[in-house]
Amino acid sequence: MLFCSLFFLLPLLAMARFSLQNVPVIRLGWSTLLDKWSLSGVTKAFGEQEFRDALGLSVKLAAGTVVLTLGLLVPTAIWVHLRLPRARAFIEFLTVLPYVIPAIALVAGIKVIQPHVRWFLNSDLSLIPFYMVLALPFTYRSIDAGIRALDLRTLVDASRGLGAGWGTTLRRALVPNLRTAILSSAFLTTAVVLGEYTIANVLLRDTLPTFTAMYRGPEPQGSYGLALLTLVATTMLFALLSVLTRARRGSADVTSVALAAVKSETT
User: Fold this and answer.
1) Cα–Cα distance between 100 and 217 in angstroms, integer?
2) Residue 131 above 60 pLDDT?
3) What is the number of other CB atoms lying within 10 angstroms of the CB of residue 161?
4) Which of 98, 123, 173, 231 has the fewest CB atoms within 10 Å, i.e. the most exposed one?
5) What Å distances lie between residue 55 and 76, 120, 223, CA to CA?
6) Residues spanned by the domain of 243
């Protein structure tokens, strides 16, 4: 356990020291460990208009990818579990393909069809479908695990028996029970979007990762500081997920609460 912790922490500490300590690399050592630490490299990047534009685009892409991914996968996963249980193995196989096919191969396919769909690819938001594909192995399994933890058929039958339609069943009975899985899926998707570089670079989109790579030329310390800050922000997202999940486990029986909500809406 200690070895694994050091394996991950030592490179991060070295990265933090390079990006936040204003000491020439040749003078870095134990004697200068506490000298001249500063956030000036990172804050200088904050003043760049290109950084603000790149961050704004990445946030828009993350929000759009999360909304469309959840809107597509949650009903699809529920439908597969209820109506097409034999197709689950095939669906799981499809969701693994982004692991097998590298992002650069996806970009190569995009470049082939680019002359025919410029009306679509000219928009910065055209990256959203590709990010949905890249996040699919994480998002689908998160939602699938949440559904497996439920007695889905009993919950749906009880809700339908109370007179609720499919929309009410999904909104008032299923989503409250899948809240942890949905949050996990949303955070994983956000992490993928904030870290994706290949597709954005090849399609000439100025996202946060491409700005960080470009900024490495004139300001290497600031660039690595931004990368470290992105990593810390992503880690905080997962820490928040852990807290929310723990709080959820300690809450009341959400199944009973969900059915009570369905009953109150249908009466």
Assistant:
1) 32
2) yes
3) 10
4) 123
5) 31, 22, 14
6) 57-266
* Close Cβ partners of 182 (under 8 Å, ≥ 6 residues apart): 70, 74, 143, 146, 175
List all residues 6 or more positions away from 126 whose beta carbon is below 8 Å from its beta carbon.
120, 203
Q: Which two tokens stand for residue 257?
A: 């609460």
Overall domain count for the chain:
1
Handedness of CA 115, 73, 200, 54 (dihedral sign): positive
In a domain, 51, yes or no: no
Residue 225, in any domain of the structure: yes
Q: Please state, in angstroms and rounded to a whole number, the distance separating the CA atoms of residues 130 and 202.
A: 13
Mean pLDDT of the chain: 79
Is 171 inside a domain boundary?
Answer: yes
Tokens of 14: 């070295």
Q: What is the 3-state secondary structure (H, E, C) of 133-153?
A: HHHHHHHHHHHHHHHHCCCHH
Rounded average pLDDT over 16-40: 70
**Residue 40 is assigned to a structural domain of this protein:** no
Q: How many residues are listed for the chain in this entry?
A: 267
What CATH number should be reported for the domain holding residue 260? 1.10.3720.10
